[in-house]
Design brief:
alpha/beta; 72 strands; 1411 residues; seven-stranded mixed β-sheet; 21-stranded mixed β-sheet; 27% strand
């Protein structure tokens, strides 16, 4: 009769067996891999799992078997007293019956009813002492309906007879994350669930150490003859929860900062204002003043201008709507208590140079303090000690803002737990692996079998063929035991066919379906608590210190100017409230539709405009309308009239007494004024022509008005018809259509603009009713939108849009969002790269700088912000010297993005086509973006499956001997298993190659090989009946291996060929997703600065950073645009390393540039339109390359010229000599580099720029001549030249000795040889000389005529003397007579003054007056 056997709990493992031949012979060389059940050895079969990690327990760690649980039909034949005439206890009335009225049968019939089939279910309990267990189908596996989740209705243990269970209404709640899970079902269902990874374990949150997974299984008496006496088994699996270092948690005043989605490369920043500090506010110790009131050492002796305003965080009424700003700065660590005397390192840095310092009122002996200035003059304060003491000190921290600094001064906080506490670090992007800490050999086999088992029998040796050894009778050996090699203690040496195991466990990747995972970062090694190190681990995953960064945003500023909220308070404010440039405050009642605003300026606003309010009529500094006091007005008028009459009477009487009459007095004053004016040459003489004087004055005034533009209406690209002054705002958003936007410093403009302490925005655009500027400047979130509603055909005809944002130096710029709308390009420019903006930059502090839209070209430099965002579809970005920007996201469709910085940066980049990424740094660590990604292909729908399985397949070595001989025949689910004793051997074949070991492999059936099976054929997975072999590998191959790459699409990745692993996962080599690089500005910098001995290393080669956690976190995403990032310290100028397209960093990277295909086509259409070899009607064509590494326009440009004379002869010369007729007709073309150069940005004077210019010249020549085929030569006489901004034009000349092109200056005038020079001389110089001679001759003749005229006039006026004078001269001597006869020199000078060239003209025309 059958005997009830106890369930068995152990673990399945692969072992070797040999097959006995019919004649009793065998060969140990022909061994096979076979699966057997072993007892759990707690010393080596334990589970190690990372803290807070879900571990899937597979059969290699835990297996449950019951050899007779499927023999219920056999049992039913021996319960005939209850089975009745049908002979079966099945609850199905069609096949069975149960006599409940028969004495003793009622309990048996009840059990049969509870079972899903014949009473064959087992009850299993999974229990974790500290962690949580789950027994649920993974996402890629079906739900097994034969399993029933139970709950205990009593307080008694489920093992107790007094316990009572009942099916769970909510299976999810009963089977997920529970300390205990109870499941009832057939043993085949339980085993299939274990094979599919239903059982998972996770440790308690943030805890590590030892735990135990306990398993209890009861057959519930179903295997007993009377279905009454139940047998149970229990086992436990030790679990080692490996400590993973958790980073410290920092609480700080302010919001959560920027949160970044690492899968999308997008960051979102919380909009919380910064802390506000007033410059000059400080706290310090004054022991002299407080020596008695607050003495040392218990006292603080702190003296503050305002203690609440200097504390960190400080307290202000403006923080009421933002409770986050009052959050105390503190630090905590969930696993620090696990290390005795565990300390942390807390460092706080003032993020701007010379911005202030800290004051601590009291210190502890348990905390060590360090303070220093780095090379950037940033103040560092570092504290090392217990978190509790550091938190107390942080509560007594004060910030002293310097009185000569204003602007942002963020506190950059870094906290390191000094590796307290962690054992190892989980590796990233690594496949799961198997921990084989033991080897399972037949130690009782004897010498002949060489530790092999016998296939198909449970025996240990050939002498025990008939001996039955139940499952889990033996256990596997520890690999660390010294077995064979006495000279190498701790080493196990096995034959080469099996494995050689070094001391420690093996780590096998590419796991099979029977292997549990994921194992901990110990990588199958062992942790030594004494040395706090992992031994025998091939992975090398040391624990790294936990590092957390935080940023406390704050702004230092002076006292606000004219910030009163009421009219009366504003007008009465003292002059000191109006700032350094104001003379008082005044209320503008018309601001923002009558809301009003207090402005700077007493008589009128200095920086703004205040118009009278249309509704109330109130003007500037008017709080209410003036009332009309009629009696006062009348009395004032009467008094004024009386006073005026008295005054006029007194004056008239005085004039009469002195001058006789008023008329005489007026005449006298008129004469005095005329006389004095002529004496001072302010009025013309009496003989002057007043008409000519009037004409001259009128003509002069007319010319002045014409040239002053008084007769022209204002307009044009640089007429800014709208200006907005913004002194109270939190953000600016601009929606611009084809605009040029520039950030400019206010110091470039005259007063009062250069004195403002806020932002001023100016707009210039055409005056057109279809072009409007929509603004909202009345709220702190200011918006502007330039709306162009013109017809698309003329939308951008004669259109211009210039926007200037004027910013004072050191002003904290609010959040600025620039959105490019429309189909044309919007440009953004800011920085010191231009002559008028030297030393200018944008300081956003705790705010964001966002650029989004369709088409945008941005050139920015010297920018710092909390978050810099560039999210543009088309265009380009060149951003240099981007510093102190902790977060940045750059996203584009095809825009090239070039960014440089001098701060250490973690760069996450994903260039989706071609990996066109250039990385430059003094030290670079780059992780490849290509990796094998294995994952289960999601199943369609959520259908369940019923397991149909040979009950002997689970534990086939431990069946009854009679059963193996075929003495028993039974059916299950209408399938006959009696003739399938060797079904698995029929599905697998054995092959021998060169006498080596035989291993089972899946092979296609003959029908499949012949191609006669209907439907798709899965190689090595087809049975003889053309059905699919039910295994993880074959299931996967059906949806992965045989699927074309173009159709294989899951996890949002398509077009990549897949290959299945033994787990059933589809593995693909994906070069996508975000790669990561840690870039440092200084050479020889270690990747993990905190992993070094901090006592023996110093910045910048080591410090407070860990891999992937550098000072700046940037993301770059682009589909086809090129990405370039450079991290270099400009002061030390280190030798950079470059990596292009994932290459190993090197000092030189060779990139052969080319133009994009679209630009090549455009050049071909331009140069070869209609089959021609040159542009039509164009003599001078600018060729401007753009893209990474292209020469900037500020350096120079290429130009194709139809003749060298346009280069030799300057434009101004041709314009003068031909009135512009000989000037060349010019055009322009652009060409984008693809690929571009690496690195793209070079220093001024770098010799590599000349080599790039020559290379691009050759690229232009090759493109114009050879694209597309056939080649088309350039016309004779045409050439491509380089036109620098400074210096002479240069041509490209081939050096015959080196066969390399070089640059040669083209001399002006003589650069085309003597022929052109001679022609210029003959056509220009000779006529110029002749005209000069004629002009000089005419001047000489005119001068002689004027001299003769003056002599004749002098003689005419001075030869007639009166008689008395003539008589007197006759009495004089000859000499005296000659002296008297000469014309005086005064007369001669007078004649010269009276006569001129214009006087001769007047004489000839009769308009000259008397001489």
């Amino acid at each position: 009769l059958p005997v009830n056997d106890r369930p068995v709990i152990g673990r399945l493992d692969q072992t070797r067996c040999v097959e006995f031949n019919d004649d009793g012979t065998y060969s140990t060389a022909d061994w096979q891999l076979d699966e057997r059940l072993f007892r759990i050895n707690g010393g080596v079969d334990f589970i190690d799992v990372n803290e807070d990690t879900v571990f899937t327990v597979m059969p290699d760690r835990l297996w449950i078997a019951d050899v007779d649980s499927e023999e219920t039909n056999v049992r039913a034949m021996h319960v005939l007293q209850c089975a009745g005439p049908c002979g079966s206890l099945s609850p199905d009335p069609q096949v069975g019956c149960c006599l409940e009225e028969q004495p003793g049968c009622k309990p048996i019939c009840d059990k049969a009813k509870l079972a899903a089939g014949p009473p064959s279910e087992v009850l299993v309990e999974f229990k974790a002492e500290r962690g949580k267990v789950s027994f649920f189908a993974p996402p890629t596996r079906p739900r097994l309906p034969g399993l029933t989740a139970l709950r205990n209705l009593t307080m008694a243990d489920i093992k107790s007879p007094s316990s009572e269970t009942w099916p769970c209404e909510d299976e999810d709640a009963c089977l997920r994350n529970q300390s205990r899970v109870w499941v009832r079902g057939r043993i085949t269902e339980i085993q299939q669930a274990l094979r599919w990874g239903y059982l998972t374990y996770i440790g308690p949150p943030f805890e590590n150490g030892d735990d135990t997974l306990s398993v209890w299984c009861s057959d519930q008496g179903y295997s007993d003859l009377e279905l009454d006496r139940s047998l149970a088994a229990s086992a436990s699996v030790p679990i080692d929860i490996v400590a993973i270092n958790n980073a410290p948690i920092v609480q700080f005043p302010g919001g959560l900062g920027c949160q970044c989605d690492t899968s999308l490369g997008d960051c979102t920043c919380e909009n919380v204002p910064p802390l506000l500090y007033t410059k000059g506010e400080e706290c310090y110790n004054d022991w002299m003043k407080f020596s008695f009131l607050d003495p040392w050492p218990a006292g603080e002796a702190i003296k503050c201008d305002s203690k609440e305003l200097s504390a960190v965080p400080n307290q202000r009424d403006t923080y009421q709507n933002f409770p986050e700003l009052s959050r105390q700065l503190s630090v905590s660590d969930v696993d620090l208590f696990e290390t005795p005397f565990g300390n942390i390192t807390f460092e706080i840095v003032i993020g701007r140079p010379n911005a202030g310092d800290f004051q601590i009122t009291r210190i502890f002996s348990t905390v060590t303090f360090y303070q220093w200035y780095d090379s950037d003059l940033l103040l560092h304060l570092q504290m090392r000690g217990p978190p509790r003491d550091i938190n107390i000190i942080l509560g007594r921290l004060f910030y002293n803002a310097r009185d000569d600094y204003s602007g942002p001064a963020p506190f950059l906080v870094t906290v390191s737990d000094n590796n307290n506490y962690g054992i190892c670090t989980p590796p990233e992007n690594r496949d799961p692996y198997r921990c084989a800490r033991s080897f399972c050999r037949n130690r009782a086999s004897g010498t002949r079998l060489q530790q092999n088992y016998i296939c198909g029998t449970p025996a240990y040796s050939e002498s025990s063929l008939i001996t039955f050894l139940p499952g889990a009778s033996g256990e596997c050996s520890d690999v660390r035991a010294s077995v064979d090699d006495a000279n190498n203690p701790g080493r196990v040496t096995l034959d080469a066919d099996f494995r050689s195991l070094e001391r420690g466990a093996t780590t096998d990747r590419f796991i099979t379906a029977a292997w549990s995972s994921p194992w901990s970062c110990l990588a199958c090694g062992y942790y030594n608590p004494a040395t706090r190190s992992v031994v025998d681990s091939p992975e090398g995953n040391p624990s790294i210190p936990g590092l957390t960064r935080a940023r406390v945003d704050l702004v230092v500023g002076g006292a606000p100017a004219c910030k009163m909220t009421t009219c009366t308070e504003c007008n009465a404010a003292p002059i000191s409230s109006s700032g350094p440039h104001g003379d008082g405050c005044g209320w503008c009642p018309s601001f923002c539709g009558g809301r009003g605003k207090c402005m700077i300026g007493r008589g009128k606003p200095i920086f703004e405009t205040c118009l009278p309010d249309r509704e109330t009529g109130l003007s500037y500094r008017q709080c209410r309308a003036p009332t009309l006091n009629l009696p006062l007005v009348i009395s004032s008028v009467v008094l004024a009239f009386l006073f005026s009459g008295v005054a006029l009477y007194v004056i008239a009487r005085w004039i009469q007494r002195r001058h006789g009459s008023v008329l005489v007095y007026i005449r006298k004053k008129r004469f005095d004024i005329t006389y004095t004016g002529r004496k001072l040459n302010l009025l013309p003489p009496e003989t002057a022509s007043w008409r000519e004087f009037f004409y001259l004055i009128f003509f002069a005034l007319l010319m002045a008005l014409i040239f002053s533009g008084a007769f022209t209406s204002p307009g044009g690209p640089f007429y800014f018809q709208q200006e907005v002054y913004l002194d109270e705002l939190t953000s600016i958003r601009m929606d611009l259509d084809n605009c040029n936007l520039r950030f400019l410093p206010t110091r470039l403009f005259p007063f009062p603009t250069n004195a403002i302490n806020a932002i001023k925005i100016r707009f210039a655009y055409p005056v057109d009713p279809e072009i409007t500027l929509e603004t909202d400047t009345c709220s702190p979130a200011t918006t502007f939108k330039l709306d162009n509603q013109r017809d698309p055909a003329r939308k951008y005809t004669d259109f211009y849009c210039n926007v200037q944002i004027l910013i004072p130096d050191r002003l904290v710029v609010p959040t600025v969002t620039i959105n490019a709308i429309g189909n044309n390009v919007t440009t953004v420019r800011s920085g010191p790269m231009d002559e008028d903006t030297r030393d200018f930059g944008l300081e956003f502090g705790s705010n964001e700088f966002v650029m989004t839209g369709e088409r945008m070209v941005s050139r920015i430099e010297n920018v710092s912000a909390k978050h810099l965002k560039y999210d543009v579809l088309h265009g380009s970005l060149l951003a240099t010297n981007i510093t102190l920007t902790p977060f940045a996201t750059f996203n584009s469709l095809d825009a090239d993005m070039v960014v440089t910085t001098d701060r250490q940066t973690t760069v996450n980049f994903w260039q989706k086509t071609g990996n066109l990424v250039c990385l430059s740094a003094a030290t670079a660590y780059i992780d490849s973006s290509c990796r094998e990604v294995c994952d289960f292909i999601p199943r369609d729908g959520g259908a369940t499956e019923t397991v149909v399985q040979d009950p002997r397949e689970i534990d086939r070595f431990y069946r009854r001997n009679a059963e193996r001989a075929g003495n028993l025949s039974y059916t299950w689910n209408e399938r006959d298993y009696s003739s399938e004793a060797e079904d698995d051997d029929a599905q697998a074949s054995q092959s021998t190659e060169g006498g080596g070991p035989k291993r089972r492999v899946l092979q296609a059936s003959a029908a499949a090989a012949a191609g006669t099976c209907p439907g798709p054929i899965v190689p090595d997975c087809m049975k003889e009946d053309c059905s699919l072999i039910d295994s993880d590998l074959c299931r996967c191959r059906q949806t992965c291996d045989i699927v074309p790459a173009a159709e294989l699409n899951f996890n949002n990745v398509s077009g990549i060929e897949g290959t299945c692993n033994n787990v059933g996962q589809c593995c693909r080599e994906i070069c996508g997703g975000y790669s990561r690089a840690d870039l440092f500005p200084f050479p020889r910098t270690v990747r993990c600065g905190l992993c070094q001995d901090q006592a023996t290393c110093s910045p910048p080669t080591c410090g407070t950073w860990t891999p992937g956690n550098l000072e700046q976190q940037w993301w770059f995403t682009s589909r086809s645009g090129q990405i370039s990032v450079s991290v270099l310290d400009l002061r030390t100028d280190p030798t950079p390393l470059h990596s292009y397209r994932g290459s190993t960093p090197a000092t030189n990277v060779e990139v052969t540039p080319d133009f994009s295909y679209a630009d090549k086509v455009a050049l071909d259409e331009l140069f070869h339109a209609g089959g021609k070899n040159a542009p039509a009607k164009i003599d001078w064509m600018w060729l401007r390359p753009y893209g990474p590494g292209a020469p900037p326009r500020t350096l120079g440009s290429f130009a194709w010229v139809s003749s060298i004379r346009f280069v030799v002869l300057p434009d101004y010369f041709l314009r003068v000599v031909s009135n512009g007729k000989l000037n060349p007709l010019k055009g322009a073309a652009t060409a984008g580099l693809r690929p571009g150069y690496c690195p793209p940005v070079l220093k001024d004077g770098d010799p590599r720029m000349n080599r790039r210019i020559i290379t691009l010249y050759q690229t232009f020549i090759d493109t114009i001549k050879d694209f597309p085929t056939p080649p088309k030569p350039l016309p004779d006489g045409t050439l491509i030249v380089w036109v620098p901004v400074k210096g002479s034009t240069q041509q490209f000349v081939l050096d015959s000795s080196t066969n390399q092109f070089g640059l040669k200056v083209i001399d002006q005038w003589s650069g085309d040889g003597p022929v052109l020079y001679t022609i210029v001389l003959l056509t220009v110089v000779v006529p110029l000389i002749l005209s000069t001679v004629l002009i000089l001759a005419g001047f000489y003749v005119g001068k002689k005529v004027l001299k003769d005229y003056r002599v004749s006039k002098l003689e005419e006026e001075n030869t007639l003397l009166d008689i008395w004078t003539q008589a007197r001269m006759e009495g004089l001597s000859e000499q005296d007579a000659m002296d008297q006869d000469e014309i005086p020199s005064a007369k001669v000078e007078e004649m010269r003054a009276r006569t001129s060239f214009f006087y001769l003209v007047d004489t000839e025309t009769g308009a000259a007056g008397a001489a």
